[in-house]
Every structure is written in C-alpha cells, then in structure tokens.
Write a structure and sequence with these properties.
- This protein has 204 residues and is an alpha/beta fold.
- It has helices spanning 14-50, 62-70, 102-117, 132-141, 152-158, 191-203, and strands at 73-74, 81-82, 92-97, 123-128, 148-150, 171-175, 181-186.
- The strands form two sheets. A five-stranded mixed β-sheet has the order 5-4-3-6-7, sandwiched between helices. A two-stranded antiparallel ribbon has the order 1-2.
C-alpha cells in the first residue's frame, strides 16, 4: 500500500503546462485588444467632438457678422453711406487696414492685383481706419481698384467675434457668395495665402 505522505512528488505534465500557458497568453492578448479598442473609441470620440466644423474659420459669431454687414460706413470717394451687404452674390474679400499700419501698406498692392485678376468673380472692399481724406489719398496712391469705406472703431470691434480677438491690423475676412464666413487672416497676408482663401470662397 502506497503512503501518500511518503510518495515521491509527481512531475508536471509538460503538455498540460504548455496548453495552460497558451490559454493564458491568448486571454492576455484578447484583453489587450479589447482595452486598445475601448481606448481608441473614446479617443476618436473626443477628437471628433473637439474638431471644428471648418478648420479654416473659428470664433464665428453670426450676430457680429450681421452687424458688420449692415453697418453704414461712408465711402471715401463720395462720402455716401454704404453697407457691405451691397456686395452679395459673389465671394467678398474684406480687408481692414489703416494709413498708420506698415503691414497694411505692404499688402495693399497684392490686394489691388488680386482684385484686378478676379474682377467679375470676386468682390473686394477695404475698410479703412482713419480720416476720410487720408484714406482717399492712400487708396489713390496704391491705385486700389475697389471701394474703401471709413470703418471706425465699431467695425473693428466686431472682428473680435470674427477671428480677431485682439483687434489686430491688418485683418482679412473672406465670405462666400451667400455672405457666410469662409476664412480669416490676422496680420500681413502673403499673395499665396490670399489666393488660397479666394479659391476656398469660389469653391463654396
């Protein structure tokens, strides 16, 4: 009769050990894949929620835009009050500039050239911050082929809700043919960047 207390220890079954190890490994792999799937789901949902609807335009306030488009501002040539809403039906490039702003002076020739190139397809309007006679002299010096309105502080203030929180100058706002914002640019804009924004407006 064998005494279980004095029996020699049984050697583990190598086949059973390998099978158990494989099952454990499979379980860990499955658990890892499930965890990765859960993390990916939550990450993708977070990114989708945070991603803006239009990466080229943010900080858009519909009321501020409407107030800007309907505000009456004197035209520098005649002095007659006009509104930006008059230039509808085609993309509209609105450029805020001032006579005392060096970057504004540097980019005005590019706006003049672009306005001539896209004549009949795109509207350009300048919004100048200075006295009417000074703005008129600058517009003639740079031979601007598009209208310029005397903007004043109210118009520039509206841009704080249209992508220009610090009231930077110059400031360019691009609208599509329906008057909806397409893009904005704060500071000196290159001719290449201007061309890109115009192309985006024409594609709408």
């Amino acid at each position: 009769m064998n005494d279980p207390l004095n029996s020699p220890p049984q050697e583990p079954n190598p086949k059973s050990t390998r099978t158990s190890s494989r099952r454990t490994l499979v379980h860990w792999v499955i658990a890892g894949l499930l965890a990765a799937g859960v993390l990916w789901f939550f990450f993708s949902q977070t990114v989708a929620t945070q991603k803006p609807a239009d990466p080229s335009f943010s900080g858009y306030d519909a009321r501020a835009l409407q107030q800007l488009l309907t505000a009456q501002m004197p035209e520098i040539e005649s002095g007659s009050p006009r509104t930006l809403n008059e230039w509808r039906g085609k993309p509209l490039i609105i450029n805020f500039w001032a006579t005392w702003c060096p970057p504004c002076k540097k980019e005005l020739p590019d706006f003049a050239a672009a306005a001539r190139h896209y004549a009949g397809r795109v509207h350009f309007v300048g919004l100048g911050l200075d006295e009417r006679d000074k703005l008129l002299a600058f517009a003639r010096e740079f031979d601007l082929p598009y209208p310029t309105l005397v903007a004043g502080g109210f118009a520039l203030g509206q841009t704080t809700k249209l992508g220009n929180p610090n009231r930077g100058m110059p400031f360019t706002l691009v609208l599509d043919a329906n008057g909806q914002p397409v893009a904005h640019h704060v500071g000196l804009i290159s001719r290449e960047r201007l061309e890109t924004l115009i192309a985006q407006a024409l594609e709408r």
